[in-house]
Amino acid sequence: MAWFVHPLTLTLFSYLTLPPESPSNFHHSPCNRNPQGLVTYRFGYIPSTNEYKVLQILSFRLDSDGKWDLQFNTFTLGRDSWWRPLQVDPRDLPFDALAYAYDSHNNLCTYGSVCLNGAVLWIYEKQKLIVAFDVRGETFKAIPLSEDYDKESADYFDLTNQQTNAECR
């Protein structure tokens, strides 16, 4: 862990460097993207135990035929020294995770997430779902978007994603 002081506010901050991704053929870029795969991070907090966790989603192409796979890892700040793989079969998840891997890679960057009441939530707009990761139980749920999730909302997320993609190029 390293410490630094913000020069304007004189506030003391600390930061922690996460272990490198696995497999080792992934590399960092502004979007954490390369031809072999995509690395996405989601940050969560468990209020009842005061623990912070990072969910790492590795999506990668298995072969030249376009088959994709996912690997999920977690890292508990202050406890883990390396990524712990989750024993999750992407085909058993409550959303089409392999399509999510493909879509995430082809859209360059994915939407952001929010942590609320011990769950990390993000929108998978193509399947009209909110994906929820229970940080404590390390399980996934899918919540259908409401019937009134209209085109205006979709346009907002599309515009936001286009702006983010432009920044990541």
Automatic annotation (TrEMBL):
Cited Pfam families: FBA_3
* InterPro entries assigned: F-box-assoc_dom_typ3, F-box-assoc_interact_dom
Q: Would I find Signal among this entry's keywords?
A: yes
Keywords recorded for this protein, A-Z = Signal
Q: Where is the signal peptide?
A: 1-23
Q: Superkingdom, according to UniProt? A: Eukaryota
Show where the F-box associated beta-propeller type domain sits: 32-157
Q: Tell me the NCBIfam families matching this sequence.
A: F_box_assoc_1
- Name-wise, this protein is Putative F-box protein
Source species of the chain: Prunus yedoensis var. nudiflora
